[in-house]
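Help needed: design a sequence for this.
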């Protein structure tokens, strides 16, 4: 693996893996405490609509997926602000409609030659410099938001009624959490694909939750755990010539199993 570091695409993959892992660790923690795990899958599959539109109209696929996912997040926020218990219904609807839109636009694209499988199972080895800039910028925004509005986000995540009584703009922060979740899902698709993205956002968080006493420590620990899984998965996929995204998730799942075994023994 050491000699592989001389290749630019491996360097890009490692940088992207680290950036996405920390973003996934932070946002995954918010998704779990807000009980929005189904949201990750919904956003991932809905963003396929943006991928299809980007292929059809000829603009950057990352941009198309991001815009579509953000639009879906805002729509979900407006629909579920007062009825969070019905969120799964709306996410399921947007999930299906987004996928359908993507498939239709791809069908309408004459002579397309884009490898759509890479968006289903990830293509971290094909990460470009522009992708890395986007991932770094998103991680910077996430860290900025968490740093300056941590207490407000904490209040909204655990008790929105109490947060409202404290004068916190619940609607704003709820929508912001959904938008950041949508964008994180989009960049995670580049690493593990839309089919496996839920595992990347939840497995490290589950482990971190058992080892932490606060939301902030859970975010930090899950970021490091996700990074460890991603780098180990990349090494595993390179060594045995396997798909990177699937390798990362299998390493994560195996590590979770081992963790549960050891944790139960304590």
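Sure. Designed sequence:
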């Amino acid at each position: 693996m050491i000699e592989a570091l001389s290749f630019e695409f491996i360097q890009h993959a490692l940088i992207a893996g680290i950036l996405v892992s920390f973003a996934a660790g932070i946002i995954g923690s918010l998704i779990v405490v807000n009980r929005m795990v189904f949201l990750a899958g919904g956003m991932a599959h809905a963003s396929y609509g943006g991928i299809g539109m980007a292929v059809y109209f000829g603009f950057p696929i990352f941009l198309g997926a991001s815009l579509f996912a953000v639009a879906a997040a805002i729509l979900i926020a407006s629909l579920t602000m007062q009825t969070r218990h019905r969120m799964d219904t709306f996410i399921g609807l947007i999930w299906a409609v987004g996928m359908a839109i993507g498939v239709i636009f791809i069908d309408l694209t004459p002579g397309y030659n884009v490898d759509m499988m890479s968006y289903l199972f990830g293509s971290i080895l094909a990460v470009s410099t522009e992708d890395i800039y986007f991932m770094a910028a998103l991680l910077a925004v996430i860290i900025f938001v968490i740093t300056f509005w941590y207490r407000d986000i904490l209040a909204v995540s655990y008790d929105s009624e109490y947060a409202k009584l404290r004068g916190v703009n619940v609607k704003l922060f709820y929508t912001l959490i959904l938008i950041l979740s949508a964008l994180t899902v989009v960049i995670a698709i580049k690493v593990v694909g839309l089919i496996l993205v839920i595992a990347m956002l939840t497995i490290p968080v589950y482990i971190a939750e058992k080892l932490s006493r606060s939301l902030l420590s859970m975010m930090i620990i899950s970021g490091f755990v996700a990074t460890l899984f991603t780098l180990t998965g990349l090494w595993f996929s390179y060594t045995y010539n396997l798909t990177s995204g699937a390798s990362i998730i299998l390493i994560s799942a195996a590590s979770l199993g081992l963790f549960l075994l050891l944790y139960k023994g304590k």
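The chain has a mean pLDDT of 84.
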